[in-house]
């Protein structure tokens, strides 16, 4: 049999800190978690209330989890970030960086001072979390350019479409494709082609806002999502981008007779659109219209309601009617 004293030693030896917290957020007891490489010493928290030592939004979140665990009587598992600096009164001996925790929260079948209590085991999962973030970034990123890949674009455009449909946030899409990349590859080699793809993505990165989404759609095709941008602004932006592309690509000193340019199609989300794919399709059509008209240009898709309604028919007929932007059309 383990004695009460031995039980106390076992609790203190627990590698992860274990808190007993009351429904109102009082730290009733703290055990274990003594390794300062992973945890701050929490013994000073006993007797304090979470609402008095942690910022309000975080304290509210903790209280909510305690409530949930008590009401459901089921084990709750939650991940959260907390820094030593977030908690008033902690001794500054633990990790300097914010810690990612996995909290396991379980209701206990007894009360302390007339209050329900939970057991809260807090495990430091910072390394695992960092790895998960890196993995997520890798699975979202195109290897050659560092831009987002198609998978991530689809997720982000879905969110932009929801913001457009629910809150009427104007949103535009640019689709562009390199001109003559095959000839560059065939004449100057695949690395020269890669260089062009990378140069174009660098221009995207330097010209876009943080909230814009740039993606390599595949091969030599790219897509840019522009939240809060209406058609006129999108067309203006596309022209600016086009100039930057030309400037950058001409600096690459491609041999005479072999040069890469860019054809851009522009479309904006319309109330008739059922999903972002409708908008993307119009941008794609406009891009092919740019190719058809001789490449190296910007073409804006039709945006009038009548044109939009007949869009599907035009596409199925292969007519691809699109407008080329003239400065007078701009609505900056
Ligand atoms: N160097 C390089 N080439 C690629 C890459 N991905 C796709 N390509 C090439 O890009 C070309 C894309 O095909 P197309 O768009 O029909 O070729 P294009 O010469 O640009 O034709 P236009 O768009 O009509 O001007 C193909 O030759 C692909 O092999 C890549 O990652 N690196």
Automatic annotation (TrEMBL):
Residues 169-303 form the GGDEF domain. Residues 321-332 have a biased composition (Polar residues). It catalyses: 2 GTP = 3',3'-c-di-GMP + 2 diphosphate. One of its GO terms (molecular function) is diguanylate cyclase activity. GO terms for cellular component: plasma membrane. One of its GO terms (biological process) is negative regulation of bacterial-type flagellum-dependent cell motility. PROSITE patterns: GGDEF. This is diguanylate cyclase. It comes from Onishia taeanensis.
